Amino acid sequence: MTLSQLPILLILLPLLGGILTLFSRPKGIPLQRVVSLIFTMALLLLSIYTVTIANSGDYSVYLLGNWTAPFGIVMVLDKLSSLMILLTSILAVIALAYAISQGTDKKGQHFHVLYQIQLFGLNGAFLTGDLFNLFVFFEVLLLASYGLLLHGGGRLRTKGGLHYVVINLVGSSLFLFAVGTLYGILGTLNIADMSTHIAQLDSAHQGIVAAAGLLLLVVFGIKAAIFPLYLWLPSAYANTSAAVAALFAIMTKVGLYAIIRVHGTLFSEQASALAGLHAEVVLSLGLVTLAMAVLGVFASRALKEQTAFLILASVATLLIGIGINTTEALAATLYYLIHSTLIGAGLFLVADIIARARGSYSDRLRPGAPMKHAVVLGSVFFITAIAIVGMPPLSGFIGKVMILEAALSSTLSTWIYAIILIGSLLMIMAMARSGSIIFYQTDTSLDDDSEKLNIRALALALVLVLASPILVIAAGPISDFTQSVASQLNDHQAYIDAVMGQPAYQGGE
């Protein structure tokens, strides 16, 4: 295997896992679990190896069918895509193990097949260097996510899933309109080649390319849940199973990744009059999204719903970092992205464990019967809450401080400081109120109908939660890595040269 084959291997591995899981279905759920775990673990190991390779700074470009760019389909592995795939793989292993430990995978058909196809779509979206294939992989991951979201059934889950399906179908249609428009003007859909054409674009066509670029931003905004296109997220994430919600912590990041990759490359400083087309829009919408998310966190009536709004708040904070549009801000954003993805997923699992420990009161924010193991669960909740709202000394605080420091160069720095700081304060108050209701305002006269604490599930949730102190202890090396990722992203010419200069394979090499 050569380094240039790494990108395609990262895509084919979960696809093969999905096929084998499908054929193992007649043998029952135990074999499906073994196959699914083996392939997901293998993907994690390969992802770790991939990060070490990508960290050298070289691009790995794979030409499908041995057709050179821009005539063929290319898969590109760089530092950012390797980081996103590693995060996906970590979540995938833990969420899958959690689903097995809680029996979630037995509550419907084809859970493991859909799970592997979901990973196939996610990895493809992170690796493709072509806009049309980004659309294709979006559709693959969305089709799998529809099944996973509704897995197990239920009225609220179906209702939330329906909103998710409808708005993403609209997004897919808009994506095709934008892709068709850009192809009509530029004559290519290879992202590196499109960037070159936009840099040479005459003024007569700049308006229509700008319109298509903004239409793409709407599409990615739907995936990322940006205001006013975020209303599908709280009900969809709050009502699906905890394992699926934990895996979906990376789904909104796909939209953010697409903005960084597509808009960051097409509308870089080389795009002359169209340079930075998206930045101010993303920054402004990020601020509004954060304000709306904070209100949602405060108004939530259940812990899982509150967690979904906290995910939305993290997305908004990331948008602000992307919108500032400097190398320092992007490095800070990527550090916060690692933190928010892992801790957000961990909070979904913690909320599920607490809901099971409260019996019929589930995760509703109202006084219930005293919980068994309240000290243990309360301690885990306390640590997770501190991390997710960004209080010192955990990683959320460091990430926000880095973004605020980078915001000093922005003309909207006053608004950024005000909304992030006030929003953080309100989220602290909301989480303190939730913890108080769940762990202190209990009624001893109520019957205890809770489930037995699943130690294995709690251990899996702790693995994600403990990522926060690890991100603090290793803040130096990790922030150095995110800085190098941001620097590579801003070297657009190197990306273009790597993709367009990749030669076709000659026999005997």
TrEMBL record:
The keyword Phosphoprotein does not apply. The keyword Transcription regulation does not apply. It comes from the Bacteria. The chain crosses the membrane at residues 6-23, 35-53, 59-77, 84-101, 131-150, 162-186, 206-233, 240-260, 272-295, 307-327, 333-354, 374-394, 414-432, 453-475. Its main location: membrane. It is a multi-pass membrane protein. Pfam families: Proton_antipo_M. It is found in: Cell membrane; Membrane. Residues 129-423 form the NADH:quinone oxidoreductase/Mrp antiporter transmembrane domain. Keywords: Cell membrane, Membrane, Transmembrane, Transmembrane helix. Belongs to the CPA3 antiporters (TC 2.A.63) subunit D family. This is Monovalent cation/H+ antiporter subunit D. It comes from Methylophaga marina. The lineage of its organism: Bacteria, Pseudomonadati, Pseudomonadota, Gammaproteobacteria, Thiotrichales.
